[in-house]
Fold these 2 entries.
Entry 1:
Amino acid sequence: MTRRGRRTISEARWPDAPDFVELAQKWRSDAITVLLNLIWQGYDLYQEGVLSKVDLSQADDQLERDITQSLSIYIDTARSGFEPFILRTEWFENEQRKPSPARQKQYDLAFIWSSPPNIRIVWPLEAKVLHSDGSVSEYAKEITDNYLTCRYAPFSSEAGMLAYLLKGSSKRAFDNIAKSVPCLLTDHIDFQNRDHKTSDHQRIVPAGESYPRNFRCHHLIFKILEKQSTEKVTTRRLSTKQIAKKTTKEKASTEKSVEHNLD
């Protein structure tokens, strides 16, 4: 690594670092959807187990770090254990590091390739608190200054942003993100019932490097302070039997209501 002068142990052990997404798709063609679904399931569990049980207007200190740290536990709880990646918080990215004693870049959350292990291959997530649906400048800066310059996710053609929205609407937040980056945001086909969009970019790859140039950013908005339903909406669909049972129950409830009104 003449660019940095000295190698880390990880670089000596794993001199090659292929694209996380390509590796994952060899495991399962829908591997990234599996990964993203873990995040949404973790959020559902966090919402049900934590957010719904506290007065959030009285608990607003260290929001970004506290939410991210707790969320990681719930995401990990949702894992089956068979995924070829593990989740870590505050994970250092050494690839674009400056000489010591400078501190490396650090991800808020990182899925790290683990089967077989190669800890240089990371699918990262950066989190930002949005105090309103218009306060997106720092969020956009993470994308333009870090993801699109390959400082973040050098070995992954996809990565994510988490927005912890405190006030306002997800739609307006998405509109402001699209204008601020700027980029075109589109719905994710597997998460159309979620506040989940994607944007596609061409990255600036440093000379001499072979990092993925085509890059997809996932944008997930978590509403934090607003009261929310704890119903879990995942990529799994209700079975025909479940739908029939739900329809019968709703019909019976409607008939009972009509009878009551007639009385």
Entry 2:
Amino acid sequence: MKTSPAARGAAVRKSLLVLTLLSGAAGMQDARAQSITGGLYGSVPAGQAAGKVSVTVTSAQTGFRRDLQPDAQGRYKTSGLNPGLYTVTFKEGNNIIAERQVSVRPNSDTAVVAVAAEDQGGGQTPAIVTVTGQSAQTTVIPIDVSTPEMSSHYSRELINTLPLAASANVETIARLRSNVRYDQNTTGLVQLGGASPAENRYYLNEFDTTNDRTLLGANRLPREAIQDTEVMAGSFGASWTNATGGVMAQTVRQGSNNFQAGYSMYYTPRSATSLVPSDKDIRDGQGGYYRYASSNYSEASTTHYLWASGALIKDKLFAFALLGDKLPSNSYSFSQNRESVASSRSKNALLNLTWNINEDHTLNLIGSRAWSSTSTSTYRLLKDYTTQAGAWSSSAYSPVTERMLIANYHGNITDNLQVRLMGGFLGQINDRAHGAEDVPYVDSYSSRTQKTTNIGIQDRTVNFRPDDYWRRGYKGDVTWRLADHRIVFGAEYYKHFLGQDWHTPQAGWYTYYDRPNAVQLPNGEQVSGQYVGYYFNREFGNMVSINKAAYLEDYWKAGDHVIVYGGLRFDKYINKDALERPLFSFPMTSPRVGVSWDVKGDSSLKVGANLGRYSLSMPSNFSFGVAESHLEQRKWYRYTGIDPATRAPLGLTQIGSTYTVPGHDGIPPEAYQVSTTNLKAPYQNELQLYAQKAFSRSWVGQVDFGYADLKRVINSTCYGQGIARYANTHGYPDYPSDYECFELNPGEDLTVTRDFSGTGKLESLTIPAAAFGLPKPKHKYIHMTFDASHSRSAAEPWYLNLSYTWTRSFGNDNGFLNLENRNAGYIGQTGIYDFPETIQGANGNLTNDVRHAFTASAAFYFQNGLRTSGILSMHSGEPVSCFGLKPDVNSISYNWGDWGHYCDASMTPVGIKTAGTSGRLPFFWQVDLGVGYDRNIGAHNKLSIDLSIQNLFNRRGITDRYNTYSADVNADNTIVPDVNWGIPSQYQSPRKASLALRYTYR
């Protein structure tokens, strides 16, 4: 007997309501960790005997089929499913009692609900309920009760709808939530969980693609290749990774039985027009130019993509292929006396193969290559601060080649035993250009304007040899289901290599000075009047680092609606020096616990918590910074003339001795010379509490509280006097002070190895932290975030996400980067702990102490194919810190620069001004707008056009201020104020626009 349309419609409506709530029967539910596959779980329809019902999972897209047998309580689960639409069929004997169609996403589990079969005409034939899960693909914050972890998912369809720039990447996506902080002033990356941008990890198809040369950013694929993006702002499980920031993971598009092909074009119009206005000039404290940018402009740029996906062998082997080509385009920039014309282009190719070996085993393989280059020509200007270009000055060519290969295997060995294996490799050769070696770089410093101007024919201060960077990694784990426990144990291994060499021109770098007052040079001489300084620097070596890890996890079903998680992770971070000799080895054990409570048992209300310890490896440039081959020398001369061609000084008479920076004599140091011998890995503790609730079939609300407490860091100090002072009073009265910088854990006891007795014999000495004088690192980050998200559906064709975050962040240390000083240099060498006096006043409001932030993103879909979208971003002002020299030319920190907080002019001499208390930046807001149109042409063709505009109103708010208070200290200890102190040094980026055209054959 057939089901009546009315009855079927009622059942569909009922199931749609439950689907949108993502409800599901309680059972042993799978949590995922950096997986390209997903899973589903649920229970048999209400009122049905578990032993009489079978469950079949199928996919028309790939021909997949898997039969499941519910347990005694009627629960079932399965994993290792490639992303896509699946049909779940429930049978009693040969009779179908219900069907469900659900969308499976990578790295997550989907709850499956089969409504109770309705009696149709005497109860002879139950209803068949089929539900489409398409609308769930735009759900950003689903309620997944299978894990204590909390993450945000973003589909390709949603990202293509929102008004994001053509160059949008994973950081752009992460900023759609208000608890993600955009670091515009130092790195251009994002802060997750209150950490610096150098403390995040990036994944692509389970492979860690984080740029381990600097820990800033990652090797990426073009946005056209990405299907799903997941963002976790901390508090993740032990099988993910160790990171004191957050995790951003993406998966690549896959093929299916349905052949599809397409073309995409991203077009960015020429800048310096009304649609894309020019950047803003910045005036210095004397009315001149601090930054001359209004004449800079870029030509229009276009990027093309061709792609295709389909089955090479039906139901078995699928492929997705992508070719990209960014056409050459020029950008023009102007400085005081130079014009630079840079021409860039890029190409890329990608192939993703998915092999469904059988219903229990799948293999995925990605291979990609990318080629990019920038050619730069520099011309002298006929007049300062104009666009009148004259003679050619120099040229450079900087090609970059990248390659990537990632393989993933997921297998169900038995119903209770699963295996995951991953192996990957990526490499990058980066040629940053190499100029003339026999011509010196020459500039001149004006004591009156405090400006330095290039006056020579050489315009390169650094010559680079090609960098060779690569990494390879492997990971494998086994999942074993035992009664109410799901146990995971696994291991991973990554090796990174970095070979680089850069230096000033071999002829050196000369700077002319004219000092009205006597200043003291680093070599001890005092000088005034006219003289010239010479500088030479070379840094080179091959750096290797290795990260090893093992982890154990247990997801325990402690009750019908409660999952208790316990995890333990062991990492070992190994760094080697420039000669590939062992340098550092940091073992770290990280326990983590969590709980997920499905309060009502239907996934409509989840309460969760996570508590754990998180650490992070040190990047290659940390090793390079402390154990490279490094030669750095300075000399000072009186001179009698200037070469008319090169502007190099003539008739030189040296002033005092050559100054070689301590530890930079060209020979890689031994480990004990550059660090304490009890150096330990950095870590912090994190707490997360949250609740998620479905309010209706389309609305999900969420509130989460986070607390992060930094406990230990690795950083450098140059306070050799602290060693000598303690040694002199503890058995070594004749041990002299040294000025070599070394790594330590600030605020902890340090053990150093030196020739304390002067006999040539090395001895160890442990100095209590209190005696050495450096404070413990402090960084406390607290946030409360409120989110509400509306999912698009057929009845309500609109998407909306509202996100508000209150934040408090304070302490004396941002973590891996010195964000207060806008310093994205060597990690572990930020300068803040160089001496006890440089850390004074540092304990205050940190850069990300942005008290209030609000982000809204929305899209509305009209029936005629028109779409509109928008993003509103607002936040209160960031605190400003002040940096200045200690007003004492005889102080130990004087020659190290303005790292201190000596900015309080109300005191004589200048006193300490606590960090983060020199005012705040203005309130920030920005509106982005998108307009799109979809048109189906026949049964197989679809055309989409999108216009995206960022900063629609071209608002130019101040986003940073110059924060250096003192330019110099006179010989009589009076401060020379920096004329630029407090001026706006960065403005909001001007309006930008891009056009996207997408055609799909399906």
